[in-house]
C-alpha cells in the first residue's frame, strides 16, 4: 500500500515538474516574442521564430509587409493578445490550484497549442499570398536566398 502511494506522489511530482518546465519555456518564449525587436509595431523576432529560414530569406520590407498582413488577419478573426494573457493567467491559477488537476492543465496547454497552430497557419497563408504577388524574378531571388539559408543551417549543424 505504501509503495502505491509513493508511486502516486512520484507521478504527481513528475506532472507538476513537467507543467512548470512548460510554463517557464512558455514565459521565456512569450517574453522573447513580445520584446524581440519591436519596431513600428513590427516584430521580426516572431516571424524569425515561426518561419526559420523561410523568414530569414525574406527582405526586411517583405517581413514588414507579411507582418502587417498577419496582424490584419488576426484582427479580422477577432484574435487578441488579451486572450493569450488570460490563458496564461488561467494556466498559472491551474498550476497553483489544490488539488492539482492534471487534466485541466493538459486541456489548457492543448488550447494554447491550438491557438499557436492557428497563428502559424495565418503566417503561412500570408507568406504564400506575398510570394504569389511577387514577380518571377523576385521569387527566384527569394529562392536563392532560401537556398543559401538552408546551406548555412546545414553547415552550422556540421560544425
Notable characteristics:
single chain; 159 residues; mainly alpha; 7 helices; 0% strand
Task: Tell me what the structure shows.
This protein is mainly α and 159 residues long. The chain has one domain. 84% of the residues lie in helices and 0% in strands. Helix 4 (60-76) packs across helix 6 (102-133) and helix 5 (81-96) runs antiparallel to helix 6. The model is unreliable at 37-50 (pLDDT under 50).
Query: What integer value in Å does the Rg equal?
Result: 20 Å
Q: Shape from CA axes?
A: elongated
Overall tally of domains: 1
The CA-CA distance between the termini, in Å, is 53 Å
Topology as H/E string?
Answer: HHHHHHH
Q: What class would the helix/strand composition place it in?
A: mainly alpha
Helix content: over 70%
Largest beta-sheet characterization: none
* Percent of residues in β-strands: under 5%
What oligomeric assembly is this protein in?
A: single chain
Q: Which whole number gives the mean pLDDT?
A: 78
Number of strands: 0
**Which residues sit in consecutive blocks of at least 5 with pLDDT less than 50?**
37-50
List the total number of helices.
7
